[in-house]
Design a protein that fits this description.
heterodimer; A: 2 domains; 4-stranded parallel beta sheet; globular; disordered C terminus; B: 516 residues; LutB_C (chain B); electron transport (chain B); iron-sulfur (chain B)
Chain lengths: 265, 516
């Protein structure tokens, strides 16, 4: 298949490992990955902060960049992020309509219909759960809110992880509870966000995992930022980075902040 | 297992009561506006987050009720269909509200009731006061009711020389402590039993001297206290869970039997009902009486369901007044997106499942409607007095009091899409604020919009950001940043940008012909 990658603005700039791994993984599975260079951002941050007017050009850019998928130029668009996929699917057309751009809204819907979050693409469209990965470490999985409740990816990521050779996958207590990120919520309501994060990191630490993984770099930035501050000795990796890992080209454990305390169970 | 949610938690501070005269108990003095008090949400939450006891209590109580709800909802095979039906009925009600209200009035009147229309809190309070006065009552007993909390009825009656006595146990605790409710269903969720014992000892008047903090003893003390009130009151005031347009029937569901006492013993009954509480037909109760108890108390069925239609000679109250309350609801109805907030049946499932509510508690929301539903209802109900007009109103901070995690939408028995409404209200709030000269957020969002709407510009910005790779130092993180990023780095590290953006890597990768 020819698959267009929407890397997400955050991963493009701060966490390039996630989209790199997405490319490696999909190519390993025999697919062509295209990176339309006009892309920038899906508009979610603007929309969820209330700046819908300012979101319009951002949404327009995303929709126009990926519009060729609607004409069959690519078979699908993949986004290694639950919340960005959610925004594409549930918000972009609304933003266009609100601005009176009905034609753009229709295109947005056509693009959204062919846009998949990574685990959806793998399991639903490509029909694989065992991607031939090898990752011999203890890992716990945080099902991000938008993957879980907006996209309903269900156990797809877990099925993919369970099939990874050598992995020691441990359950995260209170996994379905939000980590407290919420985009600009983390700044506007920093204290409440920190209180939620404290509970999330405590649960992560309790698993004794070396790595916490998720389908969103944004939530991982938040959880990882908390773990790093606590010198918990636990790193974060995007789901794609674990699935891309093989014996030949293993994904190394992420660097954690110096002075990290030993991981305790 | 008993449902004793009014007294959560078992932590006790000490056996010694606080010194006499250290009143008032309440952390929240009675506000002038029950829908608008205190500081904006972030500041109010910062305060309540410091109460570690409160956080433990709320954590325990909400975990317990979440588990109960999940268990009894899980056993209903057609739960999703019930939710769809509940949602559809409410949509139908909102689409035909004027006609249905007229039908309700007609049927209540035909069965011997008197219907009053109240545009706002002041009108509703005046109507209830006049009815109580006409009966010569200086005391009324009350069934737990959010509508009367919303209009501050108790305070108004007190100012008019009429004592309103709350008869729901948790509501009584809140009232005796001169406090405000912090939850829709369990208003004293922020109290532990040692505090409740202290409140009863000092404020109830007829509590036993040696009252302990054993829940049963506390309940018995309240029971004895309230029994005297039920038997002496001439007037009762209630809210309504449902009003049936076709028959003029009103419904109250409750757990303690206090409602049944109030609805049957006094000679005069006044019911204050928000106009959105309507349902078209008696059969529709079938849907809601399944949805409500499972969603709210986590019970298959609530212990008491009282239904009454007008006046029945020789049985129950011989005078019945229905006060139909607008108080901003018509404004909410006018909004295409926000109107589904009026579908709410006040079950409180969204509060119990909300990770924000669980940490900050109800008082941080500065409204009798806290939690996710409060965050969408309060600003809308107060819109006409500026509830959504940006920085000037504390209520404008409420739509941001959520991570949009979506847990509330999942549990809502009438499928109110709270996250989408929150996003819509944020947009309305931002738009209402556009006249403001200086707004750092708007400036930042405008600049970001320009950068993020073009691949080339964004690529350049990303390359510029990689220069910041060096600031991370040895650890590769930023631990202390200047404002506004300091809000982040107070409790989390910030990653430094990588040496190479993804798009630069991808360009090289493509040059290599897709090999690595």
């Amino acid at each position: 298949m020819r698959i267009a990658l929407a890397a997400t603005c955050l991963a493009d700039t701060l966490f390039p490992g996630a989209p790199r791994a997405t490319v490696r993984l999909l190519e390993r599975l025999g697919h062509d990955v295209v990176f339309p260079r006009g892309q920038a951002c899906c508009g979610q941050m603007h929309i969820n902060t209330g700046y819908v007017e300012e979101a319009v050009p951002v949404v327009r850019n995303h929709v126009e960049t990926f519009a060729p998928v609607a004409d069959g130029a690519w078979d699908a668009v993949v986004i290694p992020s639950g919340s960005c996929t959610g925004s594409v699917r549930h918000q972009q057309a609304m933003v266009c309509r609100r601005a009176g751009l009905d034609d753009l809204a229709a295109t947005a819907e056509a693009v959204a219909a062919r846009t998949y979050e990574l685990s959806e693409l793998l399991v639903d469209l490509l029909g694989v759960t065992d991607v031939g990965a090898w990752f011999p470490h203890r890992v716990t999985y945080h099902p991000t809110c938008h993957s879980l409740r907006m996209l309903r990816v269900g156990d797809r990521p877990l099925r993919l992880l369970r099939a990874v050779e050598g992995i020691d996958l441990v359950e995260l207590p209170a996994a379905e509870s939000c980590c407290g990120f919420g985009g600009t919520f983390a700044l506007k309501n920093a204290d409440t966000s920190a209180a939620m994060l404290a509970d999330k990191t405590a649960n992560v630490r309790g698993t004794g995992a070396a790595v916490v993984t998720a389908g969103d770099t944004s939530c991982l930035m938040h959880i990882g930022g908390g773990l790093s501050r606590q010198r918990a000795g636990i790193g974060t990796l995007h789901l794609a980075e674990i699935l891309a890992s093989t014996r030949e080209e293993p994904t190394p454990l992420p660097r954690v902040r110096a002075g990290a305390t030993e991981v305790t169970r | 297992m008993s449902t004793f949610l009014g007294i959560p938690g078992i932590r006790r501070r000490s056996d010694d009561a606080a010194p006499e005269g250290s009143d008032p108990f309440g952390p929240v003095p009675h506000p002038d506006e029950p829908l608008r008090w205190g500081e904006p949400f972030p500041a109010a939450a910062k305060q309540t987050l410091q109460d570690d006891q409160l956080r433990r209590k709320l954590g325990h109580a909400t975990r317990t009720i979440r588990a109960k709800r999940a268990s009894v909802v899980g056993e209903v095979p057609d739960w999703e269909a019930l939710r769809d039906t509940g949602s559809a009925i409410k949509e139908q009600v909102m689409a035909n509200l004027p006609d249905l209200l007229a039908r309700l009035e007609e049927n209540v009147t035909a069965r011997g009731g008197v219907v009053h229309w109240a545009r706002d809190a002041a009108e509703a309070n005046r109507i209830v006061t006049e009815i109580a006065r006409a009966q010569g009552a200086d005391e009324v007993v009350k069934v737990k009711s959010m509508a009367t909390q919303e209009i501050g009825l108790n305070e108004h009656l007190a100012a008019e020389g009429i004592a309103a006595i709350e008869t729901d146990l948790a509501e009584l605790i809140v009232q005796l402590a001169d406090d405000m409710p912090s939850h829709i269903l369990v208003p004293a969720i922020h109290r532990n039993r040692a505090e409740i014992r202290d409140i009863f000892r000092r404020r109830m008047g007829d509590a036993p001297e040696d009252l302990s903090d054993v829940p049963r003893e506390l309940a018995m003390a309240a029971r004895a206290h309230l029994r005297r009130k039920f038997l002496s009151a001439k007037v009762a005031v209630s809210g309504a869970n449902f009003g049936v347009a076709d028959t003029g029937t009103l419904a109250v569901v409750e757990s303690e039997g206090n409602g049944r006492m109030c609805l049957t013993l006094p000679e005069t009954l006044v019911t204050v009902m928000g106009i959105e509480k309507l349902i078209p037909t008696y059969e529709d109760l079938e849907v809601f009486l399944q949805l409500l108890p499972r969603s709210s108390t986590g019970e298959r069925m609530n212990p008491y369901t009282s239904l009454w239609t007008g006046v029945t000679p020789g049985d129950g109250p011989q005078e019945f007044h229905l006060v139909l309350l607008d108080n901003g609801r018509t404004d909410v109805l006018a909004d295409e997106v926000g109107r589904s907030a009026l579908h709410c049946i006040r079950c409180s499932a969204c509060l119990n499942v909300c990770p924000v509510y669980e940490r900050v508690g109800g008082h941080a929301y500065g409204s009798v409607y806290p939690g996710p539903i409060g965050a969408i209802l309060t600003p809308q109900l107060t819109a006409s007095s500026g509830g959504m007009s940006g920085a000037d109103d504390v209520n404008a901070s409420l739509p941001y009091a959520s991570t949009l995690c979506g847990a509330c939408y999942d549990v809502c028995p009438v499928k109110i899409d709270i996250p989408s409404i929150l996003v819509d209200l944020r947009a309305r709030e931002v738009d209402a604020d556009r006249g403001r000269a200086v707004d750092p957020w708007r400036a930042a969002m405008k600049a970001a919009s320009w950068v993020m709407s073009d691949g080339d510009r964004f690529g350049l910005a990303g390359r510029a950001a990689t220069l910041g790779h060096v600031v991370g130092g040895r650890d590769g993180v930023v631990s202390k940043a200047p404002p506004p990023a300091s809000a982040w780095t107070r409790s989390r590290d910030l990653p430094v940008p990588p040496q190479q953006t993804f798009r630069r890597w991808m360009a090289e990768h493509e040059k290599d012909g897709g090999e690595r």
